[in-house]
User: Fold these one by one.
Assistant:
Number 1:
Amino acid sequence: MRILLIGATGMIGSRIAAEAGERGHEVTGVTRNGKDGTLAADASDADTVARLAAGHDAVVLAVSPPRGGIEATESLLEVGRGVLDGVRRAGVRRLVVVGGAGILEVSPGVRVVDTPGLPEDALPPVRAQVALFELVRDDADDLEWTYLSPPVVITPGERTGAYRTGDHQLLSDGEGNSHISTEDYAVALVDELQRGELTRRPVHVAY
């Protein structure tokens, strides 16, 4: 499989690149500045995305919003719009988005993004990821998209190959922890790329 990976050197993107590469997939890495051998590109530019995506089987969007400020949402939405338009122009139908935990429900009708006590500096990127999900959900019916939400805590760690999948309800382990390693999140994402079973829906992965 030929995969265009936008955001290939981030904490999650780099693990996706490694996992896909280990399985024999051809990964074209894209970053804003072209570091570490990736292609430099502005993912909010649909023409650029279309040119880069041409000839690929799938596109993975692994771009994080800015950590703070009200510009986080619009910045991520600009990228989302550019990628959606670009993949269409390139004729690529498969899109997997590295999402956030903000859309997940901690109790019926109460999402992570709505929970009291969420640190103020965490709100802009969480809200931005929620807005990106809503954009994809509402505007990408013609694409085979998957929005893959990690749990509340995702950090570098061990690759075990073990994970659970859910939909919109936050998963936690037997001790009440909602977490996964970036390595096992990458396993889940590449598994879904290969299987293509969970499309046009949000998917949650966690231990």
Note: The CA atoms of residues 2 and 26 lie 5 Å apart.
Number 2:
Amino acid sequence: MGLLGNELAFARALTAQERESVMALGNQKRYEADAHLLTEGDRSSHVLIIIRGWVTVSVATDRGATRLILGLRGPGELLGEMAALDPHPRSATVRALGPIEAQVISGDAFRRFLALNPRVSGLVIRQLTFRLRSADQERSALASLTVLQRLASRLTELSGPETVGPYTPAAAGPSRGPTTAGPIVQLAQDELAATIGATREAVAKALRLLRTQHVVRTGNRMVEILDPALLALLADGHQE
């Protein structure tokens, strides 16, 4: 499973000249927390390049208002490119996790730029391929892993030392028990549930189990990882 892109963000893969040229195609815009930057089913065709902040990428499910979060995207990431390249409606909703700054570029301008810059076009194709493979892995995980495994895997991913994302490396304040303070994933339980295709109730039950085993500590919109090694074992399917 993978919620964060493991490849270099689009804007960071550009040369300085390419980055300057593509950013000059659009205008910078600010979005408030929880704002929808793109909406599933919409027929707009502009693209976004995130400058500051983090967003979720989600799709509707068969369970009515329930959504499945497919990814977390941060600075340098390109969003909305599929709708810019074909006439179909938006395939996902992009929502701001906090205040966001993004460069907004019209679909027509972006297509013209790609036609004149084959190397950049290749980067977009590589990104689309990577995200398609990641989506396939997510569907496989939904079909084959338990909620506990999927949750443990997601928390391991979001709290890893190599991760750059919406989390805090270490808890503040003195140690509160036999375990030392660990990394904190700053997502609410319903958001965590949406990242693994589970109900909030199922995630709450899995978190209670992890708390009783002193693997995590939970609070308001946060999960503190106390035992990363055991969490990784659970993600691999070991029942402790």
Note: The longest strand covers residues 67-73.
Number 3:
Amino acid sequence: MPEIELSAGTIDYQDTGGDGPAVVLVHGLGFDESVWTDVLTALRPGFRVLVPVLPLGSHRRPMRPDADLSPHGVARLLAEFMERLDLRDVTLVQNDTGTAQLLVGVRDERIARLVLTSCEALDNYPPGIQGRILYAACKVPGGIFLLLQSFRFPFLARMRTSLGGMAKKRLPKDLIARWYDPLLTDRLVRRDFVKFLRATRKDCYLEAARKLPGFTRPALVAWGAEDRMMPPETGRRLAGLLPNARYVEIPGARTLVQLDNPAALTEEIRRFVKDNPLPGEG
């Protein structure tokens, strides 16, 4: 994978290359680029698809000790990534964390189209029982280290109060191991993860929502129809705040829509881009 040095440290990223419109796929907390593999493969014909590995727990390169890894700090890294690669007219696709929302009205000049799949938003933060458990664990010394030990055992990670509640499909044990090995084996990656969790502010996305009505560019809100962690009602409310948004539900999917139903999500993204061409496209 190529790498790029940003202000917080060096990150890896995937880049299919080519001259097609740029699509940036953004993963959530405790995931890496592999969570997007099926969608990236399906979008590759006709698009330049990029997936940055953000410092959210499954990154392989620890960040600098003084890095700002709050949600806003990670959002700034995403903006910096697009700037450093000089990506223009980006279709930005977000899942799980609400990172992309934190760019709206702040550093959104490179975003031409915004796609929000099941993610943290409004008052659903920390989201679901999984989010509340993480939030509580990070307040106790050693709490995150102890909680992470459960991910050594796939049957525990697949419980509905853990990763299993985020996907309708059975998560492969090799993916669980890939996502959580950095957290289990590298104390500096754990340090980065805990920094993000401890920066949690319950009003983070309520504040961000105030800027959403000013984002008049095309938006697609594509929510998992069976999501329990990020309820569809949150997605509908989110779409209602974006003036030029369309709301759809992805059947047979929970939070990890790109794993549960990648074909449906890819089809919606392709349709969205086609229906909202930029000057010189289409």
Note: The chain has a mean pLDDT of 94.
